[in-house]
Amino acid sequence: MSIELSNESGVDVPIDLVLDAAKFAIGAMDVHPGAELSVIFVDLDTMADLHMKWMDLPGPTDVMSFPMDELTPGGGRPDAPDPGPATLGDIVLCPEFAAAQAKEAKHSFEHELAVLTVHGVLHLLGYDHAEPDEEREMFGLQNDLLSQWYDDRRRRDVQQRQSDRDSKLLRNIGFDERD
């Protein structure tokens, strides 16, 4: 999986967190591992221009998705045809808007960016929330993916701490891994 990231917003963003959330969502949705994605961070004015140009709505928004190839999540079935690698498209995020939204929702900026990243991935995969049924499906899936991603991050953190402790112990008893 290839994810290109560009920060044109002037805001310091947690790049590793966004990349991790995007990779997790793409993998969990059974998208071909050779898929390509672009994530772009823009300022309020740029987002407002994109919002007007593509949605005919005034003012900035938090996230916009621009799909490239028509993709659907795989079923993981052995008889399913291999869709092959594809360009998913672009996710455009506005960190300033996200920061204000996070403050209003009383959660962290990092969490808001993770939510918006997963939301953007789902839009690229054809999910929408224009109708009530679509909204329930998309936001339910979004919440499930975020919950799984947080569980996976906690598991990886525990494994890393254990590995660090093991390495320290081995060094302390004379089994330096660098030898």
Would you identify the regions where 5 or more consecutive residues have pLDDT less than 50? none
Would you tell me the overall average pLDDT?
91
Structural class: alpha/beta
Total beta strand runs: 4
The biggest beta sheet is recorded as: 4 strands, mixed
Number of helices: 5
Distance between the termini: 34 Å
Helix content: 40-55%
| N to C succession of SSEs | EHEHEEHHH
Outline: globular
Q: Quote the beta fraction.
A: 5-15%
Report the C-alpha radius of gyration, rounded.
Answer: 19 Å
* Sheet with the most strands: spatial strand order: 1-2-4-3
Keywords for this structure?
alpha/beta; 4 strands; 179 residues; 53% helix
Descriptive overview:
The chain is of the alpha/beta class. The protein contains five helices and four strands. The chain has helices at 15-28, 44-55, 95-105, 109-124, 132-172; strands at residues 2-7, 36-41, 63-67, 87-93. Helix 3 packs across helix 4 (109-124). The mean pLDDT is 91.
Summarize the structure.
This protein is an alpha/beta fold and 179 residues long. 53% of the residues lie in helices and 13% in strands.
Task: Describe the secondary-structure layout.
Layout: E1 2-7, H1 15-28, E2 36-41, H2 44-55, E3 63-67, E4 87-93, H3 95-105, H4 109-124, H5 132-172
Parallel strand pairs: 1-2, 2-4
Antiparallel strand pairs: 3-4
Helix pairs in contact: 1-4, 3-4, 4-5
